[in-house]
Amino acid sequence: MTTRILTGITTTGTPHLGNYAGAIRPAIVASRDPQADSFYFLADYHALIKCDDPARIQRSRLEIAATWLACGLDAQRTTFYRQSDIPEITELTWLLTCVTAKGLLNRAHAYKAAVDKNLEGGEDPDTGVTMGLFSYPVLMAADILMFNANKVPVGRDQIQHVEMARDIGQRFNHLFGRGRELFTLPEAVIEAEVATLPGLDGRKMSKSYDNTIPLFGSSRQLKDAIARIVTDSREPGEPKDPDGSHLFTLYQAFATPEQLDEFRADLLAGLAWGEAKQRLLQLLENELGEARERYQTLIARPFDLEDILLAGAAKARRIATPFLGELREAVGLRSFRTEAHSQTAGGKKKAVKTARFVSFREPDGSFRFRFLAADGEELLLSRPFDDPKAVGRISQQLIALGADALELRADEGAQFSLWLDGECMADSPTYADPDALEAAMLRLREAISGLAD
Ligand code: TRP
């Protein structure tokens, strides 16, 4: 059994070292597991919620796509696409919106934080809050449920959103699944081992703190950023405290255990901070140098990137398009052509329509039935009965008896009748000639035998 793993990357900004260690590297490693069926996508619809600068949106999509591929994501093995290339996702978002309680979304952390901030500032609670921000979790639920993901690797701030996707999926299953699980309920996975990387100043590396180390900047930019890492004022030769130094934590994220032991011992022995930064630079160059070259090649070839992403979208849509068709069907957005059949088949999926007994009441109060072939052709009209239950009993008897044992009597080659226990039960329409009558009897036997299985 393979596990479907899915995660989205919001396309605002340029990936930094923290994104690499915290998300990109572990995701790529996980995608190489033969048991994993990985879906990674650029959450560019989500990016629109946070950013109204088209140039930035576009640049970021390009950079993030190139970053993942440069870092070794295999677009053949995995399904790698842009959210905005899958129109089924927005359509599903609406289906889900219609079953999502507003109260659920009121509780979303990101929305609540925006409201709290407004209230603190004495503003209207909804100042600056778009419907995009409010409905963010529904769009995210559509991303996840569309592909029936089992596991969703995310940061801690996103756990609530995955839980909401579960809630919404469960509600949809309950309303429309007829006992079937239309959606797989996803689980959030938090990588225990992935420490959040500290930034230059020791706080979590994040664009909002302006303390990041660029992932694929030039060697020069990397060097300059490392030079800005804040250290204490201990002089060269003075012992340093590795565990109190975020430079050491950064080193740890990329070093082998042996390299790390050596670094620790050297710091304790008084390694100068300048020297220590030089070692970190070397370590990062070794880890990222080749990927940086691949990145630069990819960025310079946007046409190729476009091709890769469109192929990924086509692969994703081979799943999304038919699945959305099922979901539309489930909620009642069906072709009128399928209407008749879904009513007779009790809404269950059947490849072919079946023949059927249709009973009705005559003006004089008696009951009759017609027996119709799958295509609606009338094959029999019963004699009248006083008891309304007779109709059901007779149809069951006929089915139980089986097609071959039906007693059919033809008269004068124009009409035949159906007999049961020595009694005439029903008559056929009249036919033009004996051949047509023969053929109609055959169709009747076929229709009855079709009901038996
Ligand atoms: N909201 C996620 C984030 O900001 C990105 C995202 C969008 C996502 N859709 C997703 C993550 C679906 C996992 C699954 O990090």
UniProtKB/TrEMBL annotation:
Keyword set, alphabetical order: Aminoacyl-tRNA synthetase, ATP-binding, Coiled coil, Cytoplasm, Ligase, Nucleotide-binding, Protein biosynthesis
Binding site for L-tryptophan: D143
Alphabetical list of Pfam families matching this protein: tRNA-synt_1b (PF00579)
E.C. number: 6.1.1.2
Subcellular localization, as worded in the UniProt entry: Cytoplasm
GO cellular component: a single term: cytosol
Protein name, per record: Tryptophan--tRNA ligase
Phylogenetic placement of the source organism: Bacteria, Pseudomonadati, Pseudomonadota, Gammaproteobacteria, Pseudomonadales
